[in-house]
Design a protein that fits this description.
five-stranded mixed beta sheet; alpha/beta; Spo0b-associated Gtp-binding Protein, Chain: A; 338 residues; six-stranded mixed beta sheet; Rossmann fold; 23% strand; 20% helix; rod-shaped; 7 helices
């Protein structure tokens, strides 16, 4: 299925039904009076999060969403029917913005969380409400409230505890499949991953945590180069950054240069995001030159601290168990601090 993480839609709530202006006309009631009923309230446009959805693709083919208008009141003080709501179901993690002002209207982070993005028009009042001793035949009513129309931008941010960073072909997809039950597409060439993917890491009776494989970044991503900030934003909800640096023999730039390039993109995109806890993992160490791995390990130990650097191989499995438990400890610590 195609992954869509941003759409623009137009929403329109239902207009409220007008109050009726009617009078009793019965054979044996010589003095009829006003009996106009109230109108029905217009339907709301509601955005609802659904953990069963993973993309905004279904919204791409429908740009206009309308709620039902309320029905006008009628004689004998009959109230008009309430307009049906228009329900838009989206994945958990969706943010709703007003396209005109940029205002964040809703941030849906839990299953079945609801947000009214366009309220229905109020119900009108019939002329029965305006009867008085001075005015026993009022020809006055209150019309239903108007429809609310808005242009919205919906953005999906993946809900993950750990976000994987790294240059194309750093082994992120392979690492997700090794740590979890996810099976992303894996191949031996750059830009295998074109969409983010999630994997659940099972820690047995202790629980589990979610890792997100973010598509490979290149220099200038924060300005939109390559896959750009379209996918950088998926790191926004993560508690822990897992920065994979390949030590494979086919890399053109030194590991220190590639690491710093990614860090520069993070700072340019979001300073707060760049300050998230980070664990650096030197991948493909089993096929790299031993001295090169040792030199890189010393450099990263000085740069980020020895306790924040690990060696691992998703192919051979070396270091994976330690990596898994280190991430689990850090995720639990981050959750406890929230």
């Amino acid at each position: 299925m195609r992954f869509v993480d941003e759409v623009r839609i137009h929403v329109s709530s239902g207009k409220g039904g007008d109050g009726a202006i009617t009078f009793r006309r019965e054979k044996y009631v010589p003095f009829g009076g006003p009996d106009g009923g109230d109108g029905g309230r217009g339907g709301d446009v509601v955005v609802v999060s659904d953990e069963g959805r993973s993309s905004l693709l279904e919204l791409r083919g429908k740009a206009i969403w309308k709620a039902q208008a309320g029905i006008a009141g009628s004689g004998r003080q009959k109230t008009g029917a309430v307009g049906a709501d228009c329900c838009i179901r989206v994945p958990v993690g969706t943010q709703v913005f007003d396209e005109a002002t940029g205002e964040l209207i809703a941030d849906l982070v839990a299953h079945e969380q609801r947000a009214v993005v366009a309220a229905g028009g109020s119900a009108g009042k019939g002329n029965v409400h305006f009867k008085s001793s001075r005015n026993q035949a009022p020809r006055k009513n209150i019309p239903g409230g108007p429809s609310v129309q808005r242009r919205l931008r919906l953005e999906l941010k993946l809900m993950a505890d750990v976000g994987l960073l790294g240059f194309p072909n750093a082994g992120k997809s392979t690492m997700v499949s090794a740590l979890s039950a996810a099976r992303p597409k894996v191949a031996d060439y750059p830009f295998t991953t074109l969409v983010p993917s999630l994997g659940v890491v099972d820690m047995g009776m202790d629980g589990s945590f979610v890792v997100a494989d973010i598509p490979g970044l290149i220099r200038g991503a924060a300005e939109g180069a390559g896959l750009g900030h379209r996918f950088l934003r998926h790191l926004g909800r993560t508690r822990q950054l897992l920065h994979l640096v390949s030590m494979g023999p086919d890399e053109l730039d030194p590991p220190e240069v590639r690491y710093q390039a990614i860090r520069d993109e993070l700072v340019a995109f979001d300073q707060e995001l760049s300050e998230r806890p980070e664990l650096v993992v030197l991948t493909k160490a089993d096929v790299a030159d031993v001295e090169a791995v040792r030199a890189a390990g010393r450099w990263f130990a000085e740069r980020v601290g020895r306790e924040h650097v690990l060696l691992a191989s998703a192919v051979s499995g070396a270091g994976l168990n330690r990596l898994k438990h280190t991430l689990w400890t850090r995720v639990k610590r981050a959750k406890a601090a929230e």
